[in-house]
Design a protein that fits this description.
34% of the residues lie in helices and 26% in strands. By secondary structure, it is α+β, with helices and mostly antiparallel strands. It has a four-stranded antiparallel sheet, with helices on one face. A hairpin with a 2-residue loop joins strand 2 and strand 3. The chain starts with a strand and ends in a 5-residue tail after the last helix. 29% of the residues are buried.
Length: 87
């Protein structure tokens, strides 16, 4: 199991379009991926659960991946966040 903590710098946070890209990217991997903000953690492959976190710009999130491709999953999600979801 691997865990990383990241800050969301996208001006609109994880609103609908970035959240969709995030869950689509997470879904490409076999590993179980969780995203945590504050005390609440949800399945990173579920758009509805992800949106309930209400992640805004400047928020710190923790990603945890557990499975055979966990390192690749976290690397891909880190790159997506670093690119501000292409916005």
């Amino acid at each position: 199991m691997q865990t990383i903590t990241l800050t969301i710098n996208n001006p609109t946070g994880l609103h609908a379009r970035p959240a969709t890209l995030f869950t689509q990217t997470a879904a490409k991997f076999k590993s179980k991926i969780m995203i945590k903000k504050g005390e609440k953690a949800v399945d990173a492959k579920s758009i509805l659960k992800l949106l309930t976190l209400a992640v805004k710009q400047g928020a710190e999130i923790t990603l945890t991946a557990d499975g055979e491709d966990e390192a690749q999953a976290l690397a891909a999600l880190t790159e997506l966040i670093a690119s501000n979801f292409g916005e």
